[in-house]
From TrEMBL:
The keyword ATP-binding applies. Residues 104-290 form the Helicase ATP-binding domain. It holds the Pfam family WHD_HRQ1. PROSITE patterns: HELICASE_ATP_BIND_1, HELICASE_CTER. SUPFAM superfamilies: P-loop containing nucleoside triphosphate hydrolases. This is DEAD/DEAH box helicase. Residues 331-483 form the Helicase C-terminal domain. The lineage of its organism: Bacteria, Bacillati, Actinomycetota, Actinomycetes, Kitasatosporales. Keywords: ATP-binding, Helicase, Hydrolase, Nucleotide-binding.
C-alpha cells in the first residue's frame, strides 16, 4: 500500500475549527477606540494586552525585538530631471536614501539592476525616479510618442496600488506622465487608449503573455519606444511560475528587438539570497544588485505564538491543538477592539473567510458597529469587490482584514499597526514580506506568527534561530523545464517566426526541443524559420501560474450569479459534488461539478460541517538522473509519474472535527509527470533500526509527512507545492522507498534542492519528530492535514529510529554540502 501526501489543490488546507469563547479585557464603543482618539499604542503594549488572560502568556514562545535603525541619505544623480525631484519633494520626500540613489544611477547608465532591501525601504522610488525622468525627457520630443516604460506586478492589487501612487506623485507634472493599468479588469473601451497614448503601462505577466505579446503589432509604437521594464516583487517569481515568467520576459526582449528597442530591466525584491543571480536567471541578462538598506526603520516586535492543546482528539486519537484559524480570529478581534489596524494573513481562501466571519461575530458582542470594520480579502473575488476592500483599507474604514497572499505584495497600506500570520507562509522571504505590511509609515510595528498544528510551524516557534538568525532562501526556478519551455517556443513562433539565431535566447534546451515540437506538428519549418501554423492561439497552450486548465467558475444555481473561481487543479478536492464552499462569509453546498464546462453549481446552505477530500496516489520511476549511496541506503533524484484520484470526502463537525460520515465520489484520475527525490533502505538497515515489518509502513509514512513539512526551510516552496508517497515495497526499487515530488508538470526545482540539501533537510526532519511532546504522533510532527490515507498508519518512534539509521550513512561531503 502506498501512503501519499499531495500538493496544492488536492485537499483543503483548513482543519476543523476548535472555537472557544474569548473574554475581552477591553470593551469600548467605536468612537472611543484609541486610534480614533489619535493614540497609537506601542507594539510592546499591544502584545502585553494580548498576552493577558488565562493561559495566554504561555502561548508566546519567543519575542524578538528588532531595534530601530537610522537612515543614510544621498543626492539624486544629476541626470534626474529637476521637475521630478520637485514632485518627489512635494510628496514630502527630501533627499533619497543612499540605496535609492545608487539604483537610479545604474538605471540611468543603462544597466539592469535589482534593489533587494527591506519592506518599506522605498524601492518604488528607486526605479520611479529614473523612469519618470526618462519619460519626461521623451515627452518633449518634437515627434513620436516619446519614451515608454512597462511595469510588471505579480498581482492586480499591487498594480492598481502602484497606479494610484504614480498618479499622486506625478500630479505636478501635468499630462507628461500618462500611467494606466492594463489587465483583465481594464474595460475594453479603455484598452485602445492605453495602447495608443499611455507611456507608463502597469500590467502583470499573465496579460503580457496572453494579450500584449500575441498582439504586439497593435503595441508597436509602445514597444519601439520601450526604455525600461520594471519587475516588482521579483522574489515571487519562483518555481514553475517563475520559470514561465522567465520565458515570457525572453519573448518580450525578442519582440522589442524586432522593433529596435533594448529595454533596461529594473527589479525590486524583498531581501533575498543572491538577488543578482536570481534576477539574471529571470531576465536572461546580467544584473547589478543593490542590497544595503539605508532606510530608517521603527521598532519591530515579533512574537511567536503557539495555540494550546485542546481536550479534543483527532485522527487515530492524536491530541489536537487549537487551530491557527481560531486563534488568529481571536487575535484579530482583540486587536480591532483595541483600535489596532491589522491585517491577518491566511494560507487558504476558506481560512480568510472563516477568520473574518468569526471576528465579526465576536465583535458584535462588544459593539454592533465593529463587525462592519472587519472583512475578508482573497483571490477569486470579482474585481469591483477587491477594489472596494482596497479603498476601505487605505482610508482606515476597515480596522481588520483577513487576507490571503493576494494582499501580501507591496501594497502601500499606510498606517497599519500589526500583522498576524496564521501559519508560517512557506518561506522566510514571505514571512518578512507579510510582517513588513505593518509599520510602513515609520512607526513601531507588531508581528505575530501563529503556529499551525504542523511539523514546520511547531519546529519554528521552538527554534526561533531558524527564523531570525538565518538568511532568506535562494530563489528556485528552472526556465529550461521542457514543460515550461515548449509552449513558450510555440508562442514565440506565433509572435514572430522562430529563427536559429533565437535559440540561444531561450536557453540550452531549446535546440533539442524545437525538432520535437516540429515532429508533434506544433511548429512547421519553412526556409530558415519555424512557424506556428495552427488556428488556436499558441499563448493558450499554457497557464503561466502553473495551474493548468481553465479555472472552474462557481455559479449560484438559482440565480446564475458568478460567485468566483477555483483553480482547475483544486476543483476535484474543493468543489466536488457535496463539498462545502465559502464565499464572503456565506456557505454553499456544491450540487454539481461539470468538468467539461469548468462550472460548479452551488446553492446557499448552512451545514454544521466542513468537507475534506480523500484520494489515492501511485508513483512510478521514469528515469533516475542521479544516485548517491548513503551506506547501504540510496538517495536518488529523477523523473517520476504520479497518478492521483479523489475517491471520497469526509464530513466533519466544525467545532470538534468529529467525522460524521464518508461519501464516495466518481472523479477521473489525473496524471502528473514531474521530478522527485527519493530514498531507499535495506532489510539490514531496518533490522538495525529495530523497525519490524508491521511497523514499516507507519515509519515510512511518518518520515514522509514530516520531511515534506520541513522542506520549506531549505527550498522556496511550501508543503502545498510538493507531494509525497511512501511504499514498504516499491515495484521499481524493490525496497522500502519514500518519495517527495514537485507538484507541477516537469518539476519546479524543489525536489532537486531537497536532493542537494538532503543531509540537513532529513536531520531537521528527525529533530522535529523527536522534539515533539506528543506520545504517538500528532499534527505538530507526523500527521498531515492533506493526507489521503487519513494519517493511518503512522509510527512516530519507528520513524525516528529509521531516520537515525538512514542519516548515519550520509557521506561526510554530502552532509557538509547540505
Amino acid at each position: 500500500m502506498a501512503f501519499n501526501h499531495l500538493p496544492a489543490g488536492v485537499h483543503d488546507a483548513l482543519s476543523p475549527l476548535s472555537v472557544r469563547p474569548v473574554t475581552h479585557s477591553v470593551s469600548m464603543a467605536h468612537n472611543q477606540l484609541p486610534q480614533q482618539a489619535g493614540i497609537r499604542p506601542s507594539p510592546r503594549a499591544v502584545l502585553g494586552r494580548l498576552g493577558t488572560g488565562a493561559g495566554r502568556g504561555a502561548r508566546i514562545t519567543h519575542t524578538e525585538h528588532l531595534p530601530p535603525r537610522l537612515g543614510s541619505h544621498a543626492d539624486w544623480p544629476s541626470p534626474i530631471r529637476p521637475e521630478v525631484i520637485e514632485a518627489i519633494s512635494a510628496a514630502g520626500i527630501g533627499r533619497p536614501w543612499a540605496h535609492q540613489a545608487r539604483t537610479a544611477e545604474h538605471a540611468l547608465r543603462g544597466e539592469s539592476v535589482v534593489v533587494a532591501t527591506g519592506t518599506a525601504s522605498g524601492k518604488s522610488l528607486s526605479y520611479l525616479a529614473p523612469v519618470l525622468s526618462t519619460l519626461l525627457d521623451g515627452s518633449e520630443e518634437p515627434s513620436g510618442r516619446g519614451a515608454t516604460a512597462l511595469y510588471l506586478s505579480p498581482t492586480k492589487a499591487l498594480a492598481a496600488d502602484q497606479r494610484r501612487a504614480v498618479a499622486d506623485l506625478t500630479a505636478p507634472l501635468g499630462t507628461a506622465i500618462r500611467a494606466a493599468v492594463y489587465d483583465g479588469d481594464t474595460p475594453v473601451e479603455e484598452r485602445e487608449w492605453v495602447r495608443q497614448y499611455a507611456n507608463y503601462v502597469l500590467t502583470n505577466p499573465d496579460m503580457l503573455h496572453r494579450g500584449i505579446l500575441p498582439g504586439h503589432p497593435r503595441w508597436s509604437s509602445f514597444l519601439r519606444a520601450l526604455r525600461y521594464v520594471v519587475i516588482d516583487e521579483c522574489h515571487t517569481y519562483r518555481g514553475v511560475f517563475g520559470s514561465h515568467v522567465a520565458q515570457v520576459l525572453r519573448r518580450l526582449r525578442r519582440v522589442c528587438a524586432r522593433y529596435g528597442s533594448s529595454p533596461v530591466f529594473l527589479l525590486a525584491s524583498a531581501t533575498a539570497a543572491d538577488p543578482a543571480v536570481a534576477a539574471s536567471r529571470l531576465t536572461g541578462l546580467p544584473v547589478v544588485e543593490i542590497t544595503e538598506d539605508s532606510s530608517p526603520r521603527g521598532e519591530v516586535v515579533f512574537a511567536l505564538w503557539e495555540p494550546p492543546l485542546t481536550e479534543l482528539h483527532g485522527e487515530q486519537g492524536a491530541p489536537v491543538r487549537r487551530t491557527a484559524t481560531a486563534e488568529t480570529a481571536d487575535l484579530l478581534t482583540d486587536l480591532a477592539v483595541q483600535g489596532v489596524r491589522t491585517v491577518a494573513f491566511v494560507r487558504s481562501r476558506r481560512g480568510a473567510e472563516l477568520i473574518a466571519l468569526i471576528a465579526q461575530e465576536r465583535l458584535a458582542e462588544v459593539d454592533r458597529s465593529l463587525p462592519d470594520r472587519v472583512a475578508a480579502y482573497r483571490g477569486g473575488y470579482l474585481p469591483e469587490e477587491r477594489r472596494a476592500l482596497e479603498r476601505a483599507l487605505h482610508s482606515g474604514e476597515l480596522l481588520g482584514l483577513a487576507a490571503t497572499t493576494a494582499l501580501e505584495l507591496g501594497m502601500d497600506v499606510a498606517g497599519l499597526d500589526a500583522v498576524v500570520l496564521a501559519g508560517y507562509p512557506g518561506t522566510r522571504a514571505s514571512l518578512w514580506q507579510q510582517a513588513g505590511r505593518a509599520g510602513r509609515s515609520g512607526q513601531g510595528a507588531l508581528a505575530i506568527l501563529v503556529a499551525r498544528d504542523d511539523p514546520l510551524d511547531t519546529y519554528l516557534v521552538h527554534h526561533p534561530d531558524a527564523l531570525f538568525r538565518q538568511p532568506v532562501e535562494s530563489t528556485v526556478l528552472d526556465p529550461d523545464n521542457p514543460y515550461v519551455l515548449a509552449p513558450h517556443l510555440c508562442a514565440a513562433a506565433a509572435e514572430l517566426p522562430l529563427t536559429p539565431a533565437d535559440l540561444e535566447l531561450f536557453g540550452p534546451a531549446t535546440e533539442e526541443l524545437v525538432p520535437q515540437l516540429e515532429q508533434r506538428k506544433l511548429l512547421r519549418r519553412r526556409a530558415t524559420a519555424w512557424h506556428w501554423t495552427r488556428r488556436e492561439r499558441a499563448a493558450d497552450l499554457t497557464d503561466i501560474r502553473g495551474e493548468g486548465g481553465s479555472p472552474v467558475q462557481v455559479v449560484e444555481a438559482a440565480t446564475g450569479r458568478l460567485l468566483g473561481t477555483v483553480d482547475s487543479s483544486a476543483a476535484h478536492s474543493t468543489v466536488h459534488e457535496g463539498a462545502v464552499h465559502l464565499h464572503q462569509g456565506r456557505s454553499y453546498l456544491v450540487k454539481q461539478l461539470d468538468l467539461d464546462d469548468s462550472v460548479a453549481l452551488v446553492e446557499e446552505a448552512s451545514p454544521p460541517y466542513s468537507t475534506t477530500a480523500r484520494d489515492t496516489t501511485a508513483i512510478s520511476i521514469l528515469e533516475t538522473t542521479t544516485e548517491i549511496p548513503w551506506g547501504d541506503a540510496r538517495l536518488c533524484f529523477g523523473s517520476v509519474e504520479v497518478t492521483n484520484q479523489v475517491v471520497s470526502f469526509l464530513r466533519r463537525k466544525l467545532i470538534t472535527g468529529e467525522v460524521l460520515g464518508e461519501s464516495k465520489l466518481d472523479l477521473p484520475p489525473r496524471t502528473l509527470r514531474t521530478r522527485a527525490v527519493w530514498w531507499t533502505v535495506t532489510e539490514d538497515q531496518l533490522e538495525d533500526a529495530r523497525v519490524h515489518p508491521q511497523a514499516l509502513g507507519g515509519a515510512l509514512h511518518a518520515a514522509e509527512h514530516a520531511s515534506i513539512g520541513i522542506l520549506p526551510l531549505f527550498a522556496t516552496c511550501d508543503r502545498w507545492d510538493i507531494g509525497g508517497v511512501s511504499v514498504p515495497l516499491h515495484p521499481d526499487t524493490l525496497l522500502p522507498t519514500v518519495f517527495v515530488y514537485d507538484g507541477h508538470p516537469g518539476g519546479a526545482g524543489f525536489a532537486e534542492r531537497a536532493f542537494h540539501t538532503a543531509a540537513r533537510w532529513l536531520t531537521a526532519t528527525r529533530e522535529a519528530i523527536a522534539a515533539c511532546e506528543c506520545e504517538a504522533g500528532c499534527p505538530s510532527c507526523i500527521q498531515s492535514p492533506k493526507c489521503g490515507n487519513g494519517n493511518d498508519p503512522l509510527d512516530k518512534r519507528a520513524a525516528i529510529r529509521l531516520l537515525t539509521t538512514l542519516l548515519a550513512g550520509a557521506p561526510e561531503q554530502i552532509a557538509a554540502a547540505g
